[in-house]
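Q: A reviewer asked whether we had any structural model of the full assembly, not just the individual parts. We don't, so I'm hoping you can provide one. Inputs are below.
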Amino acid sequence: MFLLPLLLVVFIGAQFGGTSETRLGVVAPPGDASATALIDELDALQGIAVAPFDDAASLRDDIDRGLLSAGVVVPDGYDEALRSVGPITVVFVGRPDATAASLEALVAGAVGRQAAPGQAALIAAAGLDADPAELRRVALQVQDRIAAIEVTAEQLGSDELQQEFGGLGQFDLGASTQLLLFTFLTALFGSAALIQTRQYGVARRMLSTSTPMSVIVVGQGGGRFLIALVQAVYIVVASALLFRVDWGDPLATGVVLLLFCAVAAATGLLLGSTLRNDSQAGGVALGLGLGAAALGGSMVPLELYPDVMRTVARITPHAWANQAMAEIVRRDGTLADVLTEVGVLAGMAVTLLALGSLTLQRTLTR
Amino acid sequence: MAKLLIGTAPVLSCEGLQKSYGDQPAVVEVGFDIAPGETFGLLGPNGAGKTTTISMIAGLLRPDAGSITVAGERMSPTAAAAKGAVGLVPQDLAIYPDLSARENLTFFGRLYGLAKQPLRTRTDEVLEVIGLTDRAGDRAGEFSGGMKRRLNIGIGLLHRPRLLILDEPTVGVDPQSRNAILESVEQLSGEGLAVLYTTHYMEEAERLCRRIAIVDQGRLIAEGTRRELVATLGEQDLVRLEVFGDAVAAAEACAGVEGVRSADVEESTVVCLMHGAGSRLASLLGAVAEQGATVTGVEVREPDLEDVFLHLTGKALRH
Ligand SMILES: Nc1ncnc2c1ncn2[C@@H]1O[C@H](COP(=O)(O)OP(=O)(O)OP(=O)(O)O)[C@@H](O)[C@H]1O
Ligand SMILES: [Mg+2]
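A: Here is a predicted structure for the entire assembly that you could use as a starting point for your response.
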């Protein structure tokens, strides 16, 4: 019951990480029976593959490079410690993400199960021939020793990643990525209104009036833009007030968000002028909206992607906007620091707007 | 009044219009003029190319060839002035069902470039013309079919166009609304508006239009007043024979009878166009009987537009 959601998180993480299985590296003393049993138990879990490592250093290295999701270091004398009920520490190595957190819980569970008999024995041995109250006292006495059998977690990257995410409020990071996801999605869903206007024949009739086509197209695109902008502003204001989210330099954030809204609006215009009906639009909007958000780092931070994925992600406006917002929010960047991202977003907006206007004109005058 | 205006410069003149969808020709070499105060009818069956012709005249479609002039302005999809002189009432309803009648009118009035105050006055006038003053604030989606049609027409009148284009405005309308629509067209034309009216209802064309063009398969196959069109059939009578039996064989036999110019089949009816029907009816009936068919009904009358159409194309106007 608690395993399923954890596995789900690990699984989703693995999907977005671009590998089909979550790889867990393990350093274990050779010939240690309990360590072997632990490995077997972890390996048997769905979606998790255990990879043996000779030493902790190369294990950390591979986690750093994104080749492993996390790692476990089982110390020498693990089996002996369990047998003699002595203190021992299993080290869990992971990055600061949801996948690692879930894996840590899974490892802690497995180690806990191995340690449980010893813990029970400890209590029983100490409490033989004693009344319940005496047993409780004994249990309290050995509490320290029970706790000594543990899994300690160690987060990697006291260097890069740590710095990257350090000093941020709980929501600071999530807010901008979520904003991009929802704003884009909203603008895409806005295409339904344009489709309806087309279906009603009103769009075509507009073209028979003396208002130039360009004005009508801009009006349609503007409608989508306004919807996106309202959504974005709402999230910024609400999150700033409710969660005290820090949105960084107002000018830089404003420009990035405006351009992102323009890209979203132009995409909505394109969908609105090509798709046939509402339900089709709903499906495409959902698929494209969530797909682009996932690929573009609005679900899992881009920093955690393998290099190839990070390159592919560049086709999404989300990736550029996320990158810009990271610079602005995490590193106190100004407009000057995000000129590349701003340029790319502007380019995307112009290209998509031109494409959207053209297809709208074509569908209406056919 | 209307007659006085005829003879002045035409409001619409188009010539040599061509349009193909892919390699399928929809309009071939179509051209005609409409004078102020004149109602011109485009009469033709489904798929004849009426809507395509109208779309080009309204500047929605760019013709493959030919030219269109409206109120002295060359029409094209980018010609704002020419478009401002045209009021298009599309065949399919083009209104926002979620807006009220007044809101629909206001919305399009803005697109026609009317300023706020004149638009408000004009909206009231148009609501009066289309008989929707009482329902001005109600959602258009809740209107009856006839009321929606009237609103659809009202939008085309807002900006006082010189040319009103009505594309089958009475399709799916109850007799009462239809009559109201026809009456307002007559009134508008009386006020000097040029009207291009497409229909496949012959009676409407005969009632409203001074001149009528018959179109089929994209071509304008005849044009003139009702009288002129009927006269193309000559001094002839129309004989309709209800036949029980092989109607096609009966028609072939009729065609061989002296004086018969054409014999067409319309379901179980043989339609003959002939000279001197009075003296030759007996031979006609005999010819049918020889084919082993029985005549169950006979009608002799002067031909009308429907017959002109049948004669020109060999098929009925309505299906
Ligand atoms: N957008 C289009 N794409 C392809 N073919 C079309 C298109 N619009 C019309 N056509 C074809 O062009 C021909 C003429 O169609 P049009 O709509 O002009 O006829 P119509 O006279 O208005 O018919 P109706 O009385 O049914 O309204 C038809 O064969 C039709 O199938
Ligand atoms: Mg039509």
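A: Points you may want to mention in the reply: The longest helix of chain A spans residues 213-243. Residues 1-20, 161-171 of chain A have pLDDT under 50 and may be disordered.
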